[in-house]
Queue: 3 jobs
Job 1
Amino acid sequence: MAQPATNHEEEEWEQAFEHAIAEVYDCSRSFEDSAAGLRHLVKSGLVRHTDLRDRPERFFKAHRLLARHAVRHGPGFWIRFTVHYNLCFGTVLAVGSPEQVESMDHAQEHGLLGCFALTEKLAGVQSGLIVQTVCSYNPASESFRLSNVGPTNGAHKNWISQGFVADKAVVLADLVVAGQSRGPHAFLMDMRRAGQLVPGVSTGDMGMKTTGNDLDNAWISFDDVELPRSALLSRYAHVSAEGQYRQTSEGIKPFSMIGQRLYTGRVAVAQAALTYCRTLYEDTKRYTDAKPIPAFGGDELATLSTIPQLRSLYAQAEATLDALDAFVGACEADLVPLLRGGLVPPDELAHQIAVAKVKAVEQSIDLCWQLKQEVGSYALMGDSGFGSMDFLQACKFAEGDSRVLMLKMARDRMRTFARESKEGAPPRPGEEGEAALCAQLREALSAAKGDRAAEARLWDQQWRTVYDLAEAVMARSMERVLRER
């Protein structure tokens, strides 16, 4: 376990990290050059694969520092970095055996890159972490067979960042032992050896994107790929040579710990969105502070920043970003000790992290869009930073789509409302508006008369009220946390 860094050591690390990323973060590079830059950064050891456990504050700070470069250079390298450190090797750290975690040192020393193969064409994060890819154990050969080939290719892994260059892959697949499904588990596999795909693995390009084309995104198929028994990340689940499955920790499902990457990812995505937004505002304000315009009623000159709507927007953005930074920072502060101890966040913190991700991203999108409308032709300039705004679009669906997270919030609140109504409990102070929206939804859904299909249709018809309820829940969560802190 690493010792806490002193303030001086942390300042030296930050300077070294800033210098290193300035050399490699450039959207004009090809994805091969960008990947080579990450290999160089990995081998430098400035960010260790174990920092997510040992120095989580440094892990989050690295993401924030990288996000500042996304304004001028797009999101490609930031995504490449978080896929490698958080999703791929963060999963090994979370659910790997001591030997598997130790193997990350070899990957770091040789600059091996990793990808995270969860999302599929017809399943993935938005479907509740369902996967159709199957990994079956064969006791005769003491190996697994990994496959997602089917008539529709619906189980092909889709939009896998770093999929064209990764040496290692953490693959989420349904583990089948003795003909019985054991649910989604994580497998660490060689995807390439000496730069060549291993037998049975094939990839294809997802195509040109509106931003981040220095990042490769691939679909991946597995056709009867043989994996050794040691490929199963086995801190919490184990398959014996004879084909006996057992969980090694009571009460902890492997997929619960894999889900940890969504919590750390959501905090990192929220911070990246806020950092991007604040940087874009800072850069734009420097321009508008220096841009002369005729003053009203005289011959002297004013600056573009003095226009009332722009002046008001700058003040609004500063207040909004300060509040969101404080809220997301509180989530990070509560998550850090759990990461150090390898613990799962309690339900309330998991909810707050979801709120942080949604509100930080959505508010950043709104503020950046408003700013774009107020600065005229400047927003069209290639070096203004506005051309990379689709980074925020990527943040919107990364680590759990904002709309999907809001639907869960609304459903959870409806369950609480049903229980409280049954008990005859009045709404708690400050929750009267939520209770009224819940009552409105309950009345609309009552027409289904217990028919689940009809209830689902009515729920869809009430989508505006559903999202209004989620907004109310998020507003209350933020207000409470900020008041307490």
Job 2
Amino acid sequence: METKITILCENDTSKRAARFCRSEWGFSAFVETEQIKILFDTGHTDLYKHNANALGIDLEQSDFVVLSHHHWDHTSGMLSHEFKEAKKLVLHPQVLDKVSEEKAHIFNRDFEIIASEKSLELASGVFYLGEIPRKMSFEKGEHKGDSMLDDSAIAIKTTKGLIILTGCSHAGICNICEYAKELTGQDLYAVVGGFHLNKKNEALVRKTIEYFKMQNVEHIYPMHCVDFPTLVRFHDEFNTIKYATGDVIRL
């Protein structure tokens, strides 16, 4: 069973999509398995919709919309959604309190909200992780004084192990991975998305790389909120490829 992740919005545009997709600071991805289709985050404008159209993706086929956390560069695209029916919107309850009144109004008016602190199995083997326990001593699990309890991710069980898709990993990418492993009983196979790592916190970068080496992860795709020097570090350590808007990851 193949899992297909199409990057609808990322800070850069991929070479393959440069003629018909555009990029902005933010993140959005469309996840497809044999069982389910998920729109994961929406960037900060309507760009994700234009890119979906250019890539031949019908967002109306989404079974769920999942928001990784409340930040503008992951949720503001919701202001211009064009869903004809009330999609199931999965998020942590704090997202509703942290977003603007305008967003909260649209969420409540146009969507069937599923607000959960606990993990949810959206389809067989496909999980919204809910609130992430902070267990790694080297990860703060916060952002600018905000405990970011609303920060979450998706985990997908496969025959080769777990696929993790994250928005910004404010909860800590290693915390997210550890909880997903505990929840599903599987080891890591692929980790995709924003890891929120930068050169300013060299110790965190080093310990995260050490963690992934210990986990023997086959595929690592850092993007969005990972700065260039750290992307280079990941490339040197794991031969990673930086994926961007318009790219398709098949696992």
Job 3
Amino acid sequence: MLIRVRPLALVVALALGAGACSKPGDTGTSPSPTGGGGGLTYTNISASDGTGYGSSVACVPFTPCDNGTGWVQTLFRRLQQRGSATLFNPSIPGQVISQHFEDLGRRIGRTYPGNFITNQAPFTPTNTTVLTVFAGGNDANTIGQVIQAQQAGDDIRGFIDTQVRQFGDDVASLIRAVRQKAPNTKIVLLNLPNLGGAPYMARSSALERGIMQRIAVGMTDRINAQAGPNTFVVDLMCDARILEPSSFSSDGFHPSDRGYALMAELAYPAVVNSTFPAPQADCALRRVAPAY
């Protein structure tokens, strides 16, 4: 049994051409906060989506990228309209959430440029007002690729469920690491869409799509479970617009300009309001592929 999961770009944003936005003197080698002083301090933790990879104006990591069309850049511009705001965005394409998923990928020869818990969370500015996290896409594909390589053992369902539980533990660890640096920050998590219905899986078999669905839905449930005091979850899983083909870039995995704009639109109320509705416990979009 094979599951066709396309490999993700690891550090492609570092080599983007004229479409990448930067300013003279930017080296792209170390993270530094950007924006004005005072007011809202916005920090984002994510992978290639944080650079807008797949959009019409993607960004080199650690550069201001004022005209970027990724969801972080779009959301930040909207926050600036409310008053003074600062952005710290240490997103690195290809990262996974934890060392566990780095080690898992190494079973099949994959390498990663680090992980969120080790390489991003410890650098959270102590004055962060709100922090967004979008995690799980690279981790889900890593699980799928291990299954594809027949390195998951005989109990595929058991393997998936074990990895999903680990992902949930890692999300909780990430939140703890952030709160150690910025105890009072509002944390806004974005859950995963159903990757079993994403365009990059369109040529896969029904079984393969069902496997990816089980992975993505399980991860979303673990993210949803983190909702609580000063921690909100934005529900990508149950918004039908997210899975529309026009919301994806040409690789069928990363969002397009429209997809990133939708992510920013959905995240904005959670970022600026003191209350936010919990994600839906169930919806039809959790079952777009045959159950596995």
